[in-house]
Design a protein that fits this description.
Layout lengths: L1 E5 L4 H12 L3 E6 L2 H10 L2 E4 L5 H9 L3 E4 L9 H19 L6 E6 L25 H10 L4 E6 L2 E3 L6 H12 L2 E4 L5 E6 H14 L5 E3 L3 E5 H12 L3 E4 L4 H5 L3 H5 L7 H7 L8 H7 L6
Parallel strand pairs: 1-2, 1-4, 2-3, 4-5, 5-6, 6-10, 7-9, 8-12
Antiparallel strand pairs: 9-11
Helix pairs in contact: 1-7, 3-4, 4-5, 6-8, 8-12
């Protein structure tokens, strides 16, 4: 297949590109920069110049492919609501280019706020409302209702590996700044995780074998206790590990407090069964010790 990949030079998207090419697929990778173009060419992909802000480039990329994997998202949390709307528009644009065909579209979502306090599964639907501004799943569902073969890959709060720049590095940065690694209360809330090189095959297998309207979980481990993550950060930096009360969480974690308190264990049993997917990379706590998280 010729696959159009948005976010093709990003942390997850670049792993998806690598996996697709290794499996014999052709990749058309979206990039806005010359550096990104060079990265894609070095990986063996074709370059498609454009961006999420350029709907014509998205439509042309989708029209030129046998399937689309949408991993791009602007993670600037200072304008998160605007970025969610941009994501919704991008999904709609790509879907419109695929309408009337059987060409699949895979959209990226997350599991962190899916089902707080209990084991979430692929059957769970993402809540909607002011507390859940990201519209990737409703947008994909709306496309599926129009007969477009759109489905969702959900990622956990920690997609880890070398060059990670996500939630765990943010926690490490906070610990450096404050001189201690923290968890909230007893720290028993759980974060699911996956290595980026385990997540990538989920996209490919869902593209090759998946069904429209489905939700797939790229979850390597159901949930590491947040206290254990804080302990690993403390050990890696050589700083104390402390508990902060729920009332103190906003002062310590800032905008991140909601995520630091989330209890989000998540299953991928159905995804593993239907896609024949078996993760084989290191788990989060092991990876934190060996993937350069504490360098510098």
């Amino acid at each position: 297949m010729r696959v159009f990949v948005t976010g093709a030079t990003g942390f997850v998207g670049s792993a998806v590109v690598q996996d697709l090419i290794a499996a014999g697929h052709q990749v058309l990778g979206l990039t806005r920069s010359e550096a990104g173009a060079r990265q894609l060419e070095a990986a063996g992909a074709q370059v498609h110049q454009g961006s999420l802000e350029d709907p014509d480039s998205l439509a042309r990329g989708a029209a030129a492919a046998d399937g689309v994997i949408h991993t791009a998202f602007n993670h600037d949390f200072s304008r998160f609501v605007e970025n969610c709307e941009q994501d919704r528009r991008a999904i709609e644009t790509i879907g419109a280019a695929l309408e009337g065909t059987e060409r699949p579209l895979l959209v990226t979502s997350g599991t962190l706020l899916l089902a707080d306090g209990r084991l979430a599964t692929e059957d769970d639907r993402m809540p909607v409302g002011p507390g859940h501004p990201r519209q990737s799943e409703p947008a994909a569902a709306a496309l599926a209702a129009r007969g477009i073969k759109a489905s969702v890959v959900r990622l956990p709060p920690s997609v880890h590996g070398a060059i990670d720049h996500g939630f765990v590095p943010h926690l490490i940065g906070l610990a450096r700044q404050k001189g201690a690694a923290a968890y909230i209360g007893e720290g028993l809330n759980r974060w699911p995780a996956v290595h980026r090189f385990d997540a990538a095959p989920v996209y490919r297998l869902a593209l090759e074998r998946g069904e429209g309207g489905a939700r797939y979980h790229a979850i390597g481990e159901e949930g590491a206790p947040f206290k254990a993550i804080a302990a690993a950060i403390g050990a890696g930096l050589g700083v104390p590990v402390v508990s902060v009360s729920p009332d103190e969480a906003a002062d310590w974690f800032g905008w991140f407090a909601r995520f630091a308190a989330a209890d989000a264990p998540t299953s991928s049993a159905w995804t593993r069964e239907v896609l024949g997917w078996t993760p084989n990379q290191p788990d989060l706590l092991t990876d934190m010790q060996q993937a350069g998280y504490f360098a510098g």
